[in-house]
Amino acid sequence: MPTTNSSAGNSGTSAEQYNGFSADERAAMKELAQEQKKAASRRGSRAEREAAAEHDVPAKIAEMPEADRVLAERIHAIIKTAAPDLTPKLWYGMPAYARDGKVLCHFQSAQKFKSRYAMLGFSDRAALDDGAMWPASYALKELTAAGEERIGALVRKAVG
Q1: In the structure, how many helices (H) and strands (E) does the chain have?
Q2: Which end of the chain is more exposed for a tag (fewer CB within 10 A), N or C?
Q3: SS3 call for 65
């Protein structure tokens, strides 16, 4: 008789049981731990720490495969223009943009979780509320002028 894993809400054989986080998820958590350790080891004023963190985002973008890198560079420029008060930082190994240390939005490369598209995601801190339901992330395969304009508008709305 097949065993089930009702605590994870799955049914089926033991081969289908939930076995914890995927390798990609574990790698992302390790990146977060390294980011936090690196941030904690930085000495100096808040402005100096933020300046150092701002260097980390372009460095992480530069490591991405070309298609993701092109998108991430444009997203970075759009966000810096639309909301210059947001602070770039790494978040689970992804470029993110924060206000008062809290992530407002982030770029997830397609390569990060072996997806077919990159994503621009917004946290619950983003002021994007529109009725009872609204998108909190957007799939990106390419950026057109209209797409760039829409992202700029979303970021401006997100910061309130």
Answers
A1: 4, 5
A2: N
A3: coil
Q: Where is pLDDT greater, at 27 or 93?
A: 93
Strand ranges inside 25-115, DSSP E: 87-91, 94-99, 102-108
pTM of structure: 0.74
The pLDDT tens digits of the residues spanning 114-125 come to: 999 999 999 999
| C-alpha to C-alpha distance for 127 and 12, rounded to whole angstroms | 41
CA–CA distance, 1 with 4 (Å, rounded to integer): 10
C-alpha 96 chain-centroid distance: 5
Cα–Cα distances (Å) from 132 to 135, 138, 142, 155, in that order, read 11, 18, 29, 20
Q: 160: how many CB neighbours lie within 10 A of its CB?
A: 10
Residues 6+ away with beta carbon under 8 Å from 31:
90, 92, 93
Q: Write the pLDDT tens digit of every residue in 132-150.
A: 999 999 999 999 999 999 9
Strand partners, 99: 102
* Cβ atoms within 10 Å, residue 96: 26
**CA atoms within a 13 Å half-sphere pointing along the CA-CB vector of 137:** 11
Q: In sequence order, what are the beta bridge partners of 151?
A: none
